[in-house]
Structures are given as C-alpha cells and as structure tokens.
Amino acid sequence: MKKVKIKGTGIYTPKKVVSNTDLEKIVETSDEWIFERTGIRNRRICSTEGGEWPSDMAYHATLDALKAANLEPNDIDFIVFASVTPDFKLPNTACILQQKLGITNKCAAIDIAAACSGFVYGVNMVTGLIKIGAIKNALVIGSEMLSREVNWKDRNSCILFGDGCGVAIIGENEDGDESDILSLHLGADGSGKEFFDQPIGGAVEPITETHLKEDAHYMQMKGKEMFKVATRTLAENAKLVLKKADKTLEDVDWLIPHQANVRIIETTGKMLGIPPEKVIINIDKYANTSAATVPIAMHEAIADGRIKRGDTLLLDAFGAGLTSGATLLKY
Ligand SMILES: CC(C)(COP(=O)(O)OP(=O)(O)OC[C@H]1O[C@@H](n2cnc3c(N)ncnc32)[C@H](O)[C@@H]1OP(=O)(O)O)[C@@H](O)C(=O)NCCC(=O)NCCS
User: Fold this and answer.
1) Which one of the listed residues 116, 137, 158, 173 is annotated catalytic?
2) Cα–Cα distance between 279 and 281 in angstroms, integer?
3) Residue 218 phi/psi, 5° resolution?
4) Residue 157 CA to chain centroid, in angstroms?
C-alpha cells in the first residue's frame, strides 16, 4: 500500500464581510445573542456579480495549493468537488473547475453532495484510490455559496452560515517521510434526514411560484436536534478512527472539527477530553461554510505555523443527511 500525503492546501474566502451587527438590520437578532449561542462574529458572502462562484473560489484556492505542493494543474488526476451549492445542476462543478484550471489530461472529475462532511468524504474516498496506486494526486475541494440557499428572513438559520472554499491536494507520498493517512471512517444515518433539509427544488418538488412566495425553497434546520446528534457523532467518530489506528487522544496534535457552532465544538472536546488548545476554531470569522469549514481551518493553521509536518491531525465532520466522517493522519 502507498502512503498518502497532504501535499498542499489553499483557501478562498469572499471579499464581503457580513458581521452580526449587519444582520441586526435584516432580522430581529443581536451580536450578543449570536456570539453567545454560536461563537460567530462574522461571515463572508460571495458576490452575486460573478467572480466568486463556487468554481471560482476553488480555482483561486487550488492555485495556492498547487504552488504549495510544487505541482502543475496536469499533475492532478482526480477532482472531487464537495458542495451542496454547485455552480449549476449540470455539468458538475468539478468539470467546470478542471477547465478553469486548464487541465487537459482528461482526469476524472466528480461532485459529491455529503453536506458539511463532504470534504472529509472526499479525502477518505481518494485515500483508497491513492493507497492502491490507481491515482497519484487528487484535488479535494469544499466550496460553498450557502448565502444563495439561506432564508435571510429566518433568524434561526441565517445567522449560522457563510460562504467560502478550502482545498487540499492529496497524493502518493513519494518523499519517504512519515506523512500518511492512518485511519478513516465514513458514515451516514438517513433517519435524521429531516433535521436539516431543502426538499423544494429537486425532482420531487420543483420550485413553484407558491414556494417562492412562501420562502419554502430555502434550507431549513431543526437546530436543537442537529446540535445533539452532532456532538455525539463527532465524539464517537473521533474515538473510532483513533481505535482503528491503535492511537489515543494523547497522540493527536490537532483536532480540526467541522465549524457549525462553537458550543458543539466545545462539548465534543469535553466528551473526548481533549484540551481546548489542541482544537482549531475559526467559526468566529467565517460561520458555518459547510464542506469548506474543515479545509479552511486546516489551511489557516498550516499557514500560520501551528500545524507542522509530522503532526497528527484528526479531521472530524458532521452534516445534513445525516452524514459524518473522520480522518486520522500524519501531516
Ligand atoms: C441554532 C442554535 C444556535 C440555536 O441555539 P439554542 O441555544 O438551541 O437556541 P433556541 O433554539 O433554544 O432558541 C432560544 C430562543 O432564541 C430565539 N432565537 C433564535 N434565533 C435567534 C437569533 N438569531 N437571534 C435572537 N434570538 C433568536 C428563539 O426564537 C428562541 O426564542 P423563544 O425561547 O422565545 O422561542 C443551535 O441550536 C445550533 O447551533 N444548532 C446546531 C445547528 C447547526 O449548526 N447545524 C448544522 C450542523 S452541520
């Protein structure tokens, strides 16, 4: 089996910053309420004029990741684009990105819809292909423009989300160092599918004028239910990947959890017994960017020097579906 390495990472965060105070002008809320209940202060919102579509954000982030990995676009032989807000229904955003990057090697390009777990799903799926030598370098993306799907009149949900993108180039470790994916887990529990959904706008119920009038076509969430399952699942999955790799929490240098609510992260941390200083948190700046939270948090901690080569990272994600996944890796 080949060893698998994160060769480079990159992010793109939209230019427009929307603060809690800005939201006070749109819905009945307050900076204090939002910060206390969620840990969020700001979120980024994509331009609707163009230039910041999910594929554009991924394009900019990938250029940085390629540079960090010292690779060319044509070195990528698999693109996995995780998003619940793709550019279009067809073609998939991975193909759009392949073209934007000028990749001419006809590499495979797929979108996956695993909500907030999408990036971790992507990492874990390509790991298998790299391990058996089927591919050499995969580009895994989490890129979301949730601002399009959020009901900006619903204070229960609109305060929670933001837009952004994070990517990682994951490939065969040819450097002879200890970097590797040590263990992984993917899971789902469809019995909680109504906790966070967007039933209007698919094949079953196309959007009608009535839906538009009633704002029924947006994402909707049962926050309390999500909160409970999220904490339990994040803690369980973290323990699972540690057990699979015969490691303990002591071996983990950094926990990089999905950023949905700082209280979810803190509760999970307490359930696991991991010291807060080992947990990467940036929800205050970006809110919940779904599939993009884990790669953005990971990239920022690499860029500012907290995460160093040889560190053991635990990626831990949970989202609508209900999907979940975790990865234990040596960076
Ligand atoms: C949504 C969430 C922040 C709500 O926090 P909470 O502590 O459970 O708050 P509650 O739902 O009990 O609401 C308390 C009160 O605040 C009100 N409220 C809700 N949103 C508000 C807002 N933005 N500003 C002010 N008040 C608000 C509610 O209406 C409620 O008022 P009521 O008691 O008069 O009915 C929290 O449940 C959460 O983060 N859940 C997880 C959501 C998530 O991230 N899911 C995605 C995972 S991938």
Assistant:
1) 116
2) 6
3) -90, 170
4) 18
Q: Tokens standing for 101?
A: 């990057």
With contact defined as beta carbons under 8 Å apart, do 4 and 173 qualify? yes
Catalytic residue among 165, 217, 288, 299, which? 288
Distance CA(265)–CA(58), nearest Å, equals 26
Are 194 and 226 a contacting pair, CB within 8 Å? no
Closest CA to 136 of 224, 69, 208: 69
Kindly give the distance from the C-alpha atom of residue 214 to the centroid of ligand 1, in angstroms, as a whole number: 21
CA–CA gap between residue 39 and residue 108 (Å, rounded): 38
Closest of 34, 27, 57 to residue 45, by C-alpha: 57
Q: Which residue puts its alpha carbon closest to atom 19 of ligand 1?
A: 156
Ligand 1 environment, Cβ below 6 A: 29, 33-34, 37-38, 116, 155-156, 159-160, 196, 221, 223-224, 226-227, 230, 260-261, 288, 318-319
Note the Cα 128 to chain centre separation in Å.
19
Which structure tokens are listed for 116?
């907030």
| Residue 185 is a catalytic residue | no
| Grouped pLDDT means (10 residues each) for the chain, 331 residues | 98 98 97 98 97 98 98 98 97 98 98 97 98 98 98 95 98 97 98 95 96 96 93 97 97 98 96 96 98 98 98 98 98 98
Which domains are delineated in the chain? Answer: 4-172 (3.40.47.10), 180-330 (3.40.47.10)
Beta bridge mates, 138: 78, 170
- Specify the residue with its C-alpha closest to ligand 1, atom 25: 29
